[in-house]
Design brief:
By secondary structure, the chain is α/β, with parallel strands linked by helices. Helices cover 33% and strands 17% of the residues. The chain has eight helices and eight strands. It has an eight-stranded parallel beta barrel with strand order 1-2-3-4-5-6-7-8, surrounded by seven helices. Helix 3 links the parallel strand 4 and strand 5. It is globular.
Amino acid sequence: MTPLTADTPTPPLTAGGAPRLLVSVRSPREALDALAGGAAIVDVKEPAAGPLGRAPDRVVAEVLAVVASRAPTTVALGELVDFAGQPPPPGAAVAKLGLAGVAGERWWRPFARAAAAIACPAGLAPVVYADAHAASGPAFSEAAEVAADVGSRWIVLDTYGKRGPSSLRLWGEQRIAEAIAVASGHGLRLVLAGGLGLHELPVAAALGPAAVGLRGAVCGGQRGGRLRRELVRQAALRLAPRPTIA
């Protein structure tokens, strides 16, 4: 990997071509391994604290310092129903809040307040769960509309239960493609996450999300396990566009 200095500009969050690889890490060491393996975006979370577990601010700050200008960084803040208004340490491009437990509630009001309080360049991204029945979350279209209204630039499709099927298996290719179109219609970029396996990445990439998010797949199938650089490298290769023969 080409060394980067503090003066090297951070790569943009969005780029043409294949989806970018977002890898969730829980420590500075994992962040370095993710970058060395080819991750384009580093996400900070604590898997032991839930599907969108917030890491301690100390850990977030350490990861942000290690990643520096090498890649954009996103930060998980937990669920909206538990959010007490504490923003993450400065430096992240995007903050994420899960929408579990808000179905039927006027959740857009506290979400808008949170978005106004969090000063990230690409705003606050709502996380919609593909297993909405388990998460008791809102419809994707509702979340996309709210996100656009508060100035978000990203929206995430994830899974609430981490021992069940992946988001791709739960929704299928057509429904995910429709979600990507809905997001695009609201000016949002969709990050496709949620228990995806390495074998699912070519199909996921072909659907056209802005990024694909992984944790368990690059930890040998256990999201609480140790991140493995070689698995990140495999994931990056599977997301890369395949050459065509004219």
